[in-house]
Amino acid sequence: MKTTLIEKIVIATFVIFGQLACFGQSMDVLVDIRPDIIKKEGSFETGFSIREERGEKILDQCYQAHGWGKIENLKTLSAIYYDDWSSAPESLKAFNNWPNENQKVRHDFYAFKLGFSKVQLLNGPSKNEIWGVDNKVPYKKINNRLKLIDDLNMIPTLVGKEYFMQLPYWITKVPLVNYVKDTIVNTKTYHLVYGTWKSPKANKDFDQYVYWINSKTKFLEVVQYTVRAVAPGAYGFVVFDDFKTREGITIPFIHRLGYLPTREGIIHEMKFNSFEFNPKDVKDNEIRVLGN
Question: How many domains does the chain have?
Fold first, then answer.
């Protein structure tokens, strides 16, 4: 996405999977990212309005286009990627949770079941350390010694990555959906769809999302989102790029995360080397390290 979008979006805060900063707005104030047209039209909870039906149809088309329903008995996923924070301003690099500025990891996790991640660090002084969450309980395994850790930030960090790597699947589970509009950016037409839980208006318990879906390919390319688990006023963007197909599933091999959906707004960037489904070398007890 090029800088022409900057004129369209004014952002007071940003958050990337638990790394947040503030520009003049309190993180304690509940942010509401509903597009203006949704705010003007008020509540929607029936599931029968034209906007609701069109929004649900677009999200289903996105799910089908990415192909997440094509693999039967999918249980485990494994991704190798670099999480690169070198683009972040110096003042924000402190929010990088990894030991390295450009951390390479292998991330094994359950499909369609959040909160179960094993991450092996693959470079730097902490190489071969295991960081993870088991049923959303954070831990580290260093020199084969398992230790529970008091690091609540690891939960939204790893669970957020699980969620975004499977996002075209998860969008079909959003109960409150509303079509916003079509918009053209840099010759591409996007369907914008708003989604949330519990109530159409902002609430403190559940997040809000605005999905940007390419009208031609039906791929999910941009998402604006809140992170209530981190702070009521926190929100940011992710831009998906470099789409590749593996076993019939189309996956973005680049995730750019920041406070604007532009290169100027990038805080960190995830670049994937590989993405594997049901890897044979991942055993269940390697993810469920704390037992059932």
Answer: 1
Q: What CATH code is carried by the domain that includes residue 48?
A: 2.50.20.10
Q: pLDDT tens across 238-287, in order?
A: 999 999 999 999 999 999 999 888 888 889 999 999 999 999 999 999 99
Domain assignment present for 214: yes
In a domain, 288, yes or no: no
**Which residues in 213-242 are b (16+ Cβ under 10 Å) and which e?**
bbeeebbbbbbbbbbbebbbbbbbbbbbee
Find the domain containing 223 and state its range.
Answer: 3-282
pTM for the predicted model, two decimal places: 0.88
Q: What is the mean pLDDT of residues 74-97?
A: 91
Number of neighbours of residue 258 by Cβ within 10 angstroms: 23
Using alpha carbons, select from 151, 156, 149 the residue that is nearest to residue 229: 156
Residue 270 token pair: 């995830």
Does the residue 217 lie in any domain? yes
Report d(CA 229, CA 18) in Å as an integer.
Answer: 8
Residue 201 lies in a domain: yes
